[in-house]
Each structure stands twice: as C-alpha cells, then as structure tokens.
Amino acid sequence: MVVLILFFIIYSILVFLINNIYALLGFTIFNIFLMLIFKIKLKKVIKNLLNILIFTIFVFCFNLIFSSVLDSLIVAWKIIIVTNFAFIFSSKISKTSLASGLSKLLYPLKIFKIDTEDIALMLVIAFNFITIISEEIKTLKLALRARNVKLNLKTFFTKTHIIFILFFANLFRKVNYLEKTLIIRGKKSTKN
C-alpha cells in the first residue's frame, strides 16, 4: 500500500512538472489504460470529470490572465489527468487500506512522538470530505423540498438557520460515523 501511495504522489508531481504535450498525452493514455484494466465504468468517469469541470474552467480562465492560451490549456489538462488518476486510485483502494498505508508512510514522524494513525485517519476523512459534502447538499435539497421550501437566494438569506442546522448536523454525523468505522476497522485489522 505504501508503494501505491508513493506512486500516486510521484505520478502527480511528474504530471505537474512536465510541460511536454507528448508526455501529457502519455499520462492520459496511461489513465485510459488503467480505467480499462480496472473496468471502471465510463459513466462514473464522465460524472467525475463533470464534477471537476467548473474548477478546471476557473483555473483555465485564471491562468489566461498570466499565461498564453496554450499554457492555460496545459494546466487544465494536468488537473484533469491528476484528478482522473486520483479517481481511479480511490475507486480501487479501500479507505482502511489507505489509512494503513498512510500510517506506514508517516511512520518516521513517530520520532517526534506524533501519532501517525490519527494523522492517517484525518487524511482519509479529508479525502472523503468532498464526497460527504456533495451527498449532504443532495440530502439538504431533498429535505427542503419535503418541507416545501424552494432553494434559491431569497430562501438562503431568510431561512439560513434551517439550512445550516440541517446541513451541518448531518455533515458532522456522517464524518463521526466515518471516523468510528475507520477506527473499528483499523483495530480489527491490527488484531489479525
């Protein structure tokens, strides 16, 4: 697992350091090859790409201020490559094994009496936080719709307390559940 995490980190760094279009094309082909090997559904890949599309467009437009169109396109392409690789990586590796690998990778920090298991747990929760937030936004929309509250700008300012209570209560509950699940799984795997 440690080797896979190191490979992910090195892969991501290489993608952002290399500005050669042919090398980026090679990284893209490698990602496609991995998706075929791991039999990741095209629908999931497209959904993932659509989730990062707004951010990628924002980065592209921001880079247009400081760089040429070609350089801005290359930066956007790099973001797509790395996030796609992260999607492939996360779809094939369980949260428990990721936490275990991160804990082993951070082992040298034990010299400074730092609890690497807690850091690994926090990192895994952070990796999954975006997914949790998007699920909570969907749940919030459904809850507001069930209460005949339309989600628009006026509602956001007039019924802020309802929105925040529903959103944050569920969000914290899910994060606590994820933390307890990872702790229990980690304790079971260390006993075996």
Description of the molecule:
With 192 residues, the protein is mostly helical. It has two domains: 2-93, no CATH class; 113-191, no CATH class. It has eight helices and no strands. It has helices spanning 2-17, 21-37, 42-66, 69-92, 95-105, 116-146, 153-158, 160-191. Helix 1 (2-17) packs antiparallel against helix 4, helix 1 (2-17) packs across helix 5 (95-105) and helix 3 (42-66) runs antiparallel to helix 4 (69-92). It starts with a helix and ends with a helix. The mean pLDDT is 82.
What is the N-to-C order of secondary-structure elements (H for helix, E for strand)? HHHHHHHH
Spatial separation of the terminal alpha carbons:
17 Å
Percent in helix:
over 70%
Major sheet description: none
Note the beta-strand portion: under 5%
Task: Provide a short characterization of the protein structure.
The protein is mainly α. It is built from eight helices and no strands.
Give a quick set of tags describing it.
192 residues; mainly alpha; 0% strand
Indicate the topology.
Layout: H1 2-17, H2 21-37, H3 42-66, H4 69-92, H5 95-105, H6 116-146, H7 153-158, H8 160-191
Helix pairs in contact: 1-4, 1-5, 2-4, 3-4, 5-6, 6-8
